[in-house]
Each structure stands twice: as structure tokens, then as C-alpha cells.
Amino acid sequence: IPYWHTNYWESYTMAHAFAEAGYRVDCISWTNDRFQPTESYDVLVDVRLNLERLAPLVGEETLKVFHIDTAHHSFHNRAQLERLDRVRRERAVSLHRRKPLPENRGIEVADCATVLGNEFTQETYAFAGKPLFRIPISVPAHYPWPGSRDFGPARKRFLWFGSSALVHKGLDLVLEAFAGMPELELTVCGPVRKEGDFEAAYWQELYRTPNIHTEGWVDVAGDRFRQILASSVGVVYPSCSEGGGGSVLSCMHGGLIPVVGYESSVDVAADYGVVLQQATVEEIRRAVRQLASRPVAELEAMARRAFEHAREHHTREAFQCEYRRFVRRLVDGSWQQGPGPAEGGAE
């Protein structure tokens, strides 16, 4: 099973949870728009696009579950356009949209839904009035506590780590922020080369700014990524819309303190991270400088708590446990009562 994205293992685990509960499970790709059911089904689970198409084909007796791994398409797309508008105003360049979500009515036709993200993601689907069961997103790799980290020099080093749709995930804001903070260092890990228009617009910051180091794509299970984690203090990720914030959680597993926007969909408490008041260059600078100025002992304690939070709530074991519990609720019918406190929001 590929490990570079959590969806692969999580899909496998979801299917097995139903098999363990006594179901016979048929699986299709989420991109398969041609499948036609030829027999009856007790449960239909889908992510994104197929639920609306298949719902009338399986009939009203089939329990329909929408598996949510992004914010609602209307919020996601609008938020990305607003970020692109900012770049157009500031840089006089119109960048391509990346990974816009097609419209779908999955939540409207579902009986209930599972959600990888936190309160933010859930709020974008609340309009439909369907029971939303939180299943904490997993991470593709675990790391030991970086006991050799020297928080003296590390306090000046931060990381941006994300996948494609760089403006959507706030890299433009982070680059501009650190270009104005020469006393602090930023490492950039992500597919920068694959977004040539972004790379050209931010060439100066990416490659000609002494305190910004662009690594490009890195293997989360590789030695280089572990080295970056062990020599940094925090991850800065002001995404405009997420369904679970997996990249931030991977960094927290490596002992980094999260500095994130509310829309990054990661649970962050004040004793182990920072939630930006707004996603602006000025606010990022304020938050990062304030964090870097804290005593070394306080930074180490915050990093340890971030590490422990991720290890407790965002592992494969936690995902498997919660999804099995959800399937049991489908079987006994108690899903109709709605989620309990631990299933419907942050813990």
C-alpha cells in the first residue's frame, strides 16, 4: 500500500472494518464514474463524487455514508480564489487554479457522514443537518522523539511542508513573511518545481533569499526529512481550506510546534501551538517571532506536547479504532442518535 498519502491505507482499513463486521465488500475507485450496481447493498460509502450518482441506483433502503476528506467544495473553491486574487494584486501575475473541487451533493443525499477534519471542516457541511462522525486522520509515518535536538539553534528554524496547490496552502504568505525576517530560517518542502508559474513568481524568495532553503519534494519516510524535523522548532501552514491537515500532523509527529490557520483543520491548543488570528504576512511574522523568542525550556515543552497529542490522536491505530466503532454504530442502528462528544468534534 503506498504510504505517501493517508488515503490509501485508510481506504483499505475502512473496507476491512466492514468485512470484520460480517459484510461482503465491493470496492471501486473514487474516480470510477461508470460502475453500475447489479445487486442490492446494505451500505454505500463514497468520497466526493459518486454518492450522488449511485444513490438513486441502490435505492432508499441502502444506508448512504459520505466520507469527507476536504472542506465543502463551495468553501474550498471560494477560499482558493481569494488567495489567488491576493497574489494577483501583490505580484501582478495570475496563477493557475490548482485542485479545484467539482460540485457535488454528496452530503445532501447521505444519511450520515464521516469527517477526517476538525470543527472547521465540519462547519462547512453543517448546513445539510446530517450526523457527522469524526474519524481522526492518520499519518503515513511515525518518528521517535528527537532527543538530540538543540532548541537553542532550532528555535530560529521553521518548516513549510505541503503538497500541490501552493497558494491554497499558504506558501506565498510564508515566503513573503520570512523574506522579511532575515534573523529566522525557513525550509520549504513541497512540489515547487511542478508549479512553474508559482515558482517563477516567487523565484527570488525560493532561491535567492539567504534565510529560505527550498528542498522541494521530500520522502516523509526518508532520512532527509527526519533531519529537517530534528533541526527545526515549528511548522508554519496557513492553508485556506483543509479536510484534516495531514502534513501538519506529520510534522507534529516529528516534534514540531504547529503555527497554523483555523482553516488548516488541525486541533491546536495554546500549550503546544499557535492558531493565527488571520492569514496575513504581518500576522505570520508576529506569531513566528513571538514563538522564536520564548525560552528554550518552554519551546521544548510545547514541542513535546505537540508530539504527544499527535501520537495519541492521529495514528493508524486511532483511525482503525474509531472507524470500527463507527461501523458498529451502523450495524446496531445507534448512528441515528448522532455522534457522541468524542465522535463529533475535537477532544
Short description:
The chain contains 15 helices and ten strands. The protein has 347 residues and is of the alpha/beta class.
Q: Averaging pLDDT over every residue, what do you get?
A: 95
The number of helical runs is: 15
Q: How many beta-strand segments? A: 10
Outline type: globular
- Total individual domains: 2
Describe what this molecule looks like in 3D.
The chain has 2 domains: 6-68 and 105-135 and 315-344, Rossmann fold, CATH 3.40.50; 151-313, 3-Layer(aba) Sandwich (Rossmann fold), CATH 3.40.50. The chain contains 15 helices and 10 strands. It has helices at 6-20, 50-58, 73-91, 106-109, 119-123, 151-154, 171-179, 196-201, 203-207, 223-230, 246-253, 281-292, 296-313, 316-332, 341-344; strands at residues 43-46, 63-68, 112-115, 132-134, 157-161, 185-189, 212-216, 234-237, 257-260, 274-275. The strands form 2 sheets. It has a 6-stranded parallel beta sheet with strand order 7-6-5-8-9-10, sandwiched between helices.
Architecture blueprint of SSEs:
Layout: H1 6-20, E1 43-46, H2 50-58, E2 63-68, H3 73-91, H4 106-109, E3 112-115, H5 119-123, E4 132-134, H6 151-154, E5 157-161, H7 171-179, E6 185-189, H8 196-201, H9 203-207, E7 212-216, H10 223-230, E8 234-237, H11 246-253, E9 257-260, E10 274-275, H12 281-292, H13 296-313, H14 316-332, H15 341-344
Parallel strand pairs: 1-2, 2-3, 3-4, 5-6, 5-8, 6-7, 8-9, 9-10
Helix pairs in contact: 1-14, 7-12, 11-13
